[in-house]
Amino acid sequence: MEDAGQGIDWRSVCPISSALDVLGDKWSLLIIRDLLMHGPRTYTQLLGSGEHISTNILATRLNLLVSLKLIERMVPDAKARNNAFRVTESGAALRPILDAFAGWAQTYLDEFHADMLKIV
Amino acid sequence: MEDAGQGIDWRSVCPISSALDVLGDKWSLLIIRDLLMHGPRTYTQLLGSGEHISTNILATRLNLLVSLKLIERMVPDAKARNNAFRVTESGAALRPILDAFAGWAQTYLDEFHADMLKIV
DNA sequence: CCGCATCCGTTACGATACTG
DNA sequence: CAGTATCGTAACGGATGCGG
What we know:
Two copies of one chain form a homodimer. Chain A is mainly alpha-helical. Helices cover about 45% and strands about 5% of the residues of chain A. Chain A contains six helices and two strands. Chain A has a two-stranded antiparallel ribbon with strand order 1-2. Chains A and B meet through helix 1, helix 2 and helix 6 of A and helix 1, helix 2 and helix 6 of B. Chain B binds a DNA duplex through helix 3 and helix 4.
């Protein structure tokens, strides 16, 4: 499958809306988070990441993120086994956004989620 | 319904994960965007916003965002008719994140979505 | 074993009709 | 105007199977 933006139904021409068409789900940004925090990680390593994503969802998300070039395989033309994923420039550019989400949550979600980590 | 964080199943203690437990969907941040761009807006005005959210989804999201204090009604104890929603401090604090999403999309989604607005 | 794909029950979403 | 009720569809989530 060599499609790219075809997989996405862009709701409008608004850039914010378009960003959410790609990242507006519960898993994509967590995958990016794991790759940014730990460096390259394999499929199985990503499966073990704290929150519990199921196998089919992870595979689907990884394919989408690869097709949109937010992440890539370390060895492009090797077989999947132990061929870790890493962020591209596009994915790495999301780091400030993830940091901002963390700060926002610590400030404004504290009263609703007392167990949340205070320092990252 | 006077619940708050009970409505949310927090997946982990990670602040990023927790932020996405609240905002990790296709509509919540778009509602915040509309309120930040246009100021207070009524239910019907929000319904008319470019992307087409359906009535039940909007009502559900508004209730969740109110319960988590990201938005509030202009006149707390008045009836719903013409009682617009506005962002609280919590919701307003998301403005830099939305701006960052816009910039990211314009830079990295351009090749997949040529019609996207270049300037906001 | 690792990296998925498939099957299937459950949940969320989305469009439309309808109500106070 | 501001929602709720209903119902069909799509996405999710867990279990399992299977090739390399």
